[in-house]
Design goal:
Helices cover 32% and strands 21% of the residues. It is of the alpha/beta class. Strands 1-2-5-4-3-6-7-12-11-8-9-10 form a 12-stranded mixed β-sheet, sandwiched between helices.
Length: 328
């Protein structure tokens, strides 16, 4: 067993799987769009199962490692704390909870095995940890080259805490891209639907655009680039959009691009374009009052209403700012 500040690693197993040679991505994929490991959080729920299917296909498409994580809360079964703990709980966890955690991981590996076709992740590793769910998962996001995938249950479920769902809390806490997958969606195979991305002049939007182009290239689909117009200066908006896309169109000449200048709120514009899409990529600039004006965070609004996978990308955050240590 290995201790860390917010979790205790109690299980570590490796499941070998065959790998394949993915299509060569442009050299730019080694920059902001580079993803070296996919992590998926599972708890046995239908939403987590959908997330595991999507994550396994994403890892196979990228030919990267996949880590499946299950977190056992360090509290009695009647007190399932999903967010930041309000009061300390005992660290002791019974054999029954460990056994249940192992069953969740085994069942998830079975789902992944059935989901996979000829293309598989480079490797599959499982992690069984004890701790408050969000801080432990946030510890896996310290590397910006990771992507963490979480499921989001439907709106009518009771799987919420006073601080919000695990997916919403993790988007706020993570330091790598977070993919939020709703229950009941298809795996991350190309369906012909485009990748939709929102752009502005922020650092988060620049990395979002890089990931969106990379995802579209790997899926062999188009990118729909949405820029919300602030005011009526259409010419200035077109200049911002052209400047934002110039480098990416040179690096990904085979990716078709459709530009959308929208007068609506950014979240509404992204949701309108997401109807025929297969994926939405959006930036998350942080928690400042300015970025929460009007309807609040664009990423939060899109996650709440969008029924397809959403990748939320944060601006660069120093590892020193990470509030938790990684389960190792």
């Amino acid at each position: 067993m290995a201790h860390c500040s917010d979790g205790l690693l109690v299980g570590d197993r490796m499941s070998g799987c065959s790998c394949y040679t993915a299509g060569a991505a442009p050299s730019s994929a080694e920059g902001p769009a580079s993803i070296k490991r996919i992590i998926v959080a599972v708890d046995g729920s239908p939403a987590a199962t959908a997330a595991a299917r999507w994550a396994s296909c994403e890892a196979a498409m990228r030919n990267v490692d996949l880590t499946v994580v299950h977190v056992v809360p360090p509290a009695p079964a009647g007190w399932r704390q999903a967010g930041w703990p309000a009061i300390p709980g005992p660290i002791e966890v019974g054999d029954h909870q460990f056994a249940q955690g192992e069953k969740v991981l085994d069942a998830t590996l079975g789902v992944i095995a059935k989901t996979m076709g000829p293309h598989r992740p480079r490797s599959i590793t499982t992690r069984l940890c004890v701790g408050a769910v969000v801080p432990v998962l946030a510890g896996f996001t310290r590397a910006e080259s990771h992507m963490i995938v979480v499921g989001r249950p439907g709106r009518d479920t009771m799987c919420r805490t006073l601080r919000g769902s695990v997916s919403s809390a993790l988007v706020r806490a993570a330091h790598c891209p977070v993919a939020v997958v709703h229950n009941g969606i298809a795996p991350a195979r190309s369906s012909g639907g485009p990748v939709v991305v929102g752009v502005d002049r922020s650092a988060a939007a620049e990395r979002s655009t890089a990931i969106a182009f990379d995802e579209a290239f790997r899926r062999d689909v188009d990118v729909v680039v949405v820029h919300a117009i602030q005011g009526s200066d259409m010419r200035r908006a077109e200049e911002v959009l052209s400047q934002s896309l110039a480098g990416f169109q040179r690096r990904y000449p085979k990716v078709g691009v459709r530009r959308v200048l929208a007068g609506a709120h950014p979240a509404d514009a992204l949701l309108d374009e997401s109807e025929p899409a297969g994926l939405v990529v959006v930036g998350n600039r942080g928690r400042s009052v300015l970025t929460r004006k009007l309807f609040g965070s664009v990423s939060a609004a899109v996650i709440q209403a969008c029924r397809i996978p959403v990748i939320v990308v944060r601006r660069h955050v120093s590892p020193d700012m990470c509030p938790v240590a990684c389960c190792r």
